[in-house]
Give the backbone structure.
Amino acid sequence: MNIWGFSVTILVVLFYISFYVVWIRPVRKIKKARKLFYSGVISVLDESENDYDCYPDIALLYERLAKEYPSLKEKYYSATELLGDMIVHINTLGTNEFKLRFDMYNPKQKLSRLVSIRNILLTVQPFSSLPAKQADLVKTLKQAIETDNEELATNALNQLVNENLLYKLYFVILKEV
């Protein structure tokens, strides 16, 4: 083999290694974290009959997984979002496909409880579909409006405008309030 053939082989190998590290590996980590979350949620549901007892455990499960798999938090900002994803998968995937993807049987019989727990999480964390910084600013703005604190509202709006977040939050705020 000549030097050019060897160089091309090295470049191709480096390309595929970088492709794996940059694109495939993070996706696999998110899939693994999502699978762990789903099985953890089913375990929590099996342990408790009361939905209000389940939501703190599910939120804790999400936080622990987000620490172990930081890419999970980039895709799903909160347990509410990930639980919504689980509900969508339960509704759209057949039993066999769900088993193949998540290595568990489709828990369709638990769907109403999952929806109930997601609604509880939305009540407890109303701006959970936003990143933490944006959610804090929106909470501050909401508090300022509720308490008629004009100065706090102005400061929160200015901060949202200065960080170019206001246009992004417009539809989210309308959807969640």
